[in-house]
Design goal:
By secondary structure, the chain is α/β, with parallel strands linked by helices. Helices cover 40% and strands 14% of the residues.
Length: 331
């Protein structure tokens, strides 16, 4: 049983660790436990045989719901729990499920719940998130894959439906949201300016992508643009979003979950970074340009900016256009 992380971007960055687990236990049935959104990433994944959904908001609310889910896990009779999620809740989940071997970082005070714990002193600061998970496994004797890469998978039917929605292969994705907080979001009018210029210069078509909470941002961008755009913000499931992004020539984005999804499909990415640390959460991709301003308060890791948002306001459309042009020129 692998308890994965609760954020889409983080979960995508665990996929090299998933490959390592599969290589270490090739005959095992590997089951991922995930929240409803993250669970969609691992359906049809080559390193995952089954997905069990742990839904704290609906099906497994409160102590009773958690206990019921742990009882379900206990009936599965898992041999090993690998906890990629850092929370103490994951430790309780594995212990209450009576999984005999429980492995993970000894974070959040859960060391006593693990019998294959990795001390927090073993964590190397400044590690990219993909290496953070692999470092834990290597400490436990599970070797990292020879080639570290992000992996997601689509079905032919999903690819076909995306092709019907976005005919051809001349699309760029504009992804203006970021679920973690407003501080990670670049200015909508500048996204619009970049989209218009790229459409004018390269003849590309524009699709706007993002989650339900970002519909207002999408509407603002669509209204500010001169060229037409297909606005899919808040209108796709996780798997539909995966298939849409896989069709794109380029993605222009904030640091976000969809950014890592695009990286898993080899889509070139121009990524705007402000309050978050590009050294730890940049896309694992050779076709990527990071656009950021070196200001004294960044990376602050805050959800909302308490001052003037200078890390984002200091990035102009021309900065992002220069990165996008380089990537389109390499394609």
């Amino acid at each position: 049983m692998v308890r994965t992380t609760n954020w889409i971007g983080d979960a995508v960055m665990t996929t090299p660790a998933m490959a390592a687990i599969r290589a270490a236990f090739p005959a095992a049935e590997i089951t991922v436990v995930a929240n409803p959104l993250v669970a969609e990433l691992f359906r049809f994944h080559p390193d995952c045989d089954r997905v069990l959904v742990f839904d704290k908001k609906h099906d497994h609310r409160g102590v009773k719901g958690f206990w019921t889910f742990c009882a379900e896990l206990r009936r599965e009779r898992f041999d090993l729990a690998v906890l990629l999620q850092n929370a103490i809740e994951a430790g309780f989940m594995a212990a209450l499920a009576r999984i005999p071997r429980r492995a993970g970082y000894e974070t959040d005070g859960r060391g006593w719940l693990l019998n294959y714990g990795v001390a927090t002193s073993e964590r190397k600061h400044g590690l990219h998130h993909t290496d953070y998970y692999l470092n834990m496994l290597e400490t436990l004797g599970i070797a990292a894959p020879d080639k570290k890469k992000l992996v997601l998978a689509l079905t032919p039917e999903e690819e076909q439906r995306a092709g019907e929605l976005l005919p051809g292969r001349n699309w760029i994705a504009i992804n203006p949201g970021a679920a973690y907080g407003s501080a990670k979001r670049w200015l909508p009018d500048r996204f619009a300016a970049v989209a218009d210029r790229l459409a004018e210069e390269y003849g590309v078509q524009v699709v706007l992508t993002g989650g339900p909470g970002e519909k207002e941002i999408g509407a603002d961008i669509e209204q500010a643009m001169s060229c037409p755009a297909v606005n899919l913000i808040g209108r796709t499931s996780v798997r539909e979003l995966m298939a849409v992004l896989a069709r794109c020539r380029l993605m222009v984005t904030n640091d976000s979950g969809p950014m890592h999804v695009a990286a898993a499909f080899g889509v070139p990415i121009a990524a705007v970074f402000g309050p978050t640390d590009h050294r730890t959460t940049s896309p694992l991709s050779e076709s990527c340009r990071i656009i950021r301003k070196d200001v004294d308060c960044a990376p602050c890791m805050l959800r909302q900016c308490p001052t003037d948002h200078r890390c984002m306001s200091g990035i102009f459309a021309e900065d992002v256009l220069a990165a996008a042009r380089e990537l389109l020129g390499e394609a």
